[in-house]
Amino acid sequence: MRKILISISIILFSIIVSGQEYKTLNNIHYYEEKINQTDKYIDERCVLDIYIPQNVKDFPTVIWFHGGGLTGGEKEIPEALKNKGIAVVGVNYRLSPKVSAPLYIEDAAAAVAWVFKNIKKYGGDENMIFVSGHSAGGYLVTMIALDKTYLNKYGIDANKLAGVIPFSGQMITHFTARKEKGVDELDARIDELAPLHFIRADAPPLLLITGDREKELFGRYEENAYMARMMKLKGHKDTTLYELEGFDHGGMAQPAFPLLLNEIKRIQKRTK
Fold it and tell me: In this model, does residue 8 exceed pLDDT 60?
């Protein structure tokens, strides 16, 4: 585990691409039209925005899932990821209590599958697709990256993901998924809805980032620390954990974005 002090964060890597033009496409449905036509909530909620560099080829893509406890939140293109020479996809997914687990996880997989099948026509590199998100979004991306069944449904091997970068995501069963089953939020569970249930040595690179353990949501740092330890014990060679000292659950996202960009740069260099 690496602690990051606030004084260090100002020197973290940031890519600046001068003169680059970008285009944003909004509210693209990521399920097939026949599904949209038969489910009003999917038609309303399961859409994404894509922010794309223009007149360049083979750029990386970050698929970003918003937080909100699986009960709220809206898709976004984070400002910290704009103008960095990458595409960014902001995803909406269905929310509890209108749906329950695993439907929002299935939505996350459907959105990622859409990107795999479409990013090349926008100029992106389908081998440089990263998934990330804050809190509930971090939980979703870790689930679909480690439990391969979600992406297998679309004929996609989760190991094709270039990197998985959850910001303060739950590694045990998410508290909302537990609540749906009548389980108390402090009653920790590791079951088929927990990323920790699917630790494996052959997973994509995993960068875990949390806020300060004393300022985070209950147990959030410790869940991620346990995940990092268990992945390494399982034989995974590319798991890293950062604790952003001094930052709480909500505040940790901004200093985490440069770490995400550093990770993209690292993996790009490694694959060249």
Answer: no
